[in-house]
Design goal:
283 residues, single chain, 13% strand, 37% helix, alpha/beta, 9-stranded parallel beta sheet
């Protein structure tokens, strides 16, 4: 039994020399991160399809059981809105092929303007995707959280395609006013939607956004500790990504979340031991 946990990135300046060895060449950074967590969000692919050689390096630095949840490029999801995107989709699928089983799910994050009236487009797009991959969809239109008919319609589209609905839980962030620059920035940019915690498949994916204050982040994820515990006991295989506005402690928080679940499910397989960080020297 395994719970996969991770962060929004595998390299982050506040981690360097404190949690991860520094300096490290690019070809070693993901390997070091993978001693802390067993999953990562592939957010960089949203901005550009990576070179195949780059993806080969990602695969070489991780075990086959490591999970990438890789975001489709914005060219496909935001600019073309899933229509007429055959060529960029082909290029993307070819680029990520070296990940093999590590490509746990291809993540279709849709813009806030993509609403119930666009579900036919989403259904057609999912139907045309190759069955070799799993797919996970994140929506941000308010109707999918407030209109029961829209919720049922989206669940139907995803269910027929065997796709998961990815919740982005920002409830803790918006529970009280921001107290840092990073939190103020997140208040402007992140979606303010109700929490959703229903799984559609045997491999649910959760994105949880806390606060820069570690204690408030831990306090806010209590709901998810219970939900993930239940999923594991039902035989599901969840993946949970922990974010904070500045992500300075996200790496340790992801492991703490795993520990909190393992305290309730002792048979859960432990995470690997983090790579030691050598002290900095002057010479």
């Amino acid at each position: 039994m395994r719970l996969h946990v991770g962060c929004a990135m595998w390299t982050h300046a506040p981690w360097q020399g404190r949690l991860l060895p520094h300096p490290l060449p690019p070809a070693e950074r993901l390997r070091a991160y993978a001693t802390w967590c067993n999953a990562v969000e592939g957010n960089t692919t949203f901005y550009a399809t990576p070179a195949r050689g780059t993806v080969e390096s990602w695969a070489a630095q991780t075990d086959p059981g490591f999970r990438f949840v890789v975001k489709l490029p914005k060219t496909i999801t935001h600019e073309r809105r899933l229509t007429g995107a055959e060529e960029p989709l082909r290029e993307f699928l070819d680029a990520i092929e070296p990940l093999g089983p590590r490509a746990h799910a291809l993540w279709i994050q849709l813009p806030g303007s993509f609403g119930p009236g666009d579900l036919g487009t989403l259904a057609g797009f999912l139907h045309r995707l190759p069955p070799a991959h799993r797919y996970a969809v994140e929506v941000r239109h308010q109707a999918f959280f407030e209109d029961a008919r829209a919720v049922r319609a989206l669940e139907g589209v995803l269910g027929r395609a065997g796709a998961e609905w990815v919740p982005f839980d920002t409830v803790t962030l918006f529970r009280s006013p921001p107290t840092s620059d990073a939190e103020r920035d997140a208040w402007v940019k992140k979606p303010r939607v109700p929490r959703r915690s229903a799984a559609l498949t045997d491999r649910p994916i959760v994105r949880y956004l806390g606060r820069d204050d570690v204690s408030r982040t831990v306090e806010g994820w209590g709901h998810w500790v219970g939900v993930v515990t239940d999923w594991l006991r039902e035989g599901r295989s969840p993946t949970v990504f922990v974010h904070t506005p500045d992500n300075a402690e996200a790496l340790t928080l992801a492991r703490s979340f795993h520990d909190a679940v393992r305290a309730r499910v002792p048979e859960l397989e432990p995470l690997p031991e983090p790579a030691p960080v050598e002290p900095l020297t002057l010479f």
